[in-house]
Each structure stands twice: as C-alpha cells, then as structure tokens.
Design a protein that fits this description.
Helix content: 10-25%
Number of helices: 2
Order of helices and strands: EHEEHE
Shape: elongated
Largest sheet: 4 strands, antiparallel
Distance between the termini: 51 Å
Strand order of the largest sheet: 2-3-1-4
Radius of gyration: 16 Å
Amino acid sequence: MNKYELTLVVNAKIEDDERAAAVEKAKEIITRFGGTVTEVEDAGKKRLAYEIQKMKEGYYYFIQFDADAACPAEGRSPDAATGRCTACGTERHNPRRRSRPRWPRCPRS
C-alpha cells in the first residue's frame, strides 16, 4: 500500500456542519475504493493564491491515507471540494516543508 495525502479545499461561506459533511464524504470515497484514512488535519481558513470558482478564501483539510495505486485514480470526484491534489510519497508528506533544495547563487562575473 502507498501513502497519499489529499488536500481538500472547502468553500469558506458554508456552515460548519456542511464542511464536516464534505470531509466525511471525502473519507467515504477513500474507503469505498479500498483506502484507509490515517489522519485528518484541519488547517483552518486561508486566503487562496488566486480565485477558484469565484472564491477568495477556503477551509483547508489535509487527509492522509494508505491505498493501492489504483485508488486515487478511481476516486477523483469530491463534489464539495474546490481543488484536489493527491501527492504520493514513501514517507509522510509535509506540505509546509520546502519540496526542493535551495541552490547556491552563482557569483556574477
């Protein structure tokens, strides 16, 4: 089984119970396709880098799960999510960590 992380962005204008239902629906989709949810992290309300479906803010949820390689490809339709991103890794993915190394600057001639 591979480790994955689903980033779920939910509309900031909906109520708390509707947001919780959207997260539960995403978890149900994962389990329906044979995945096992290991952790759900609520990152809170954040400003989007650019507008998505006329929204400027959204609630971010990071859902870590274990699944076969076919699971993320089959379950790509969370309705309440404005964006989705599945990242595969052998270790726990940390979205706040810089993903690529900083290279030293070349001296100018």
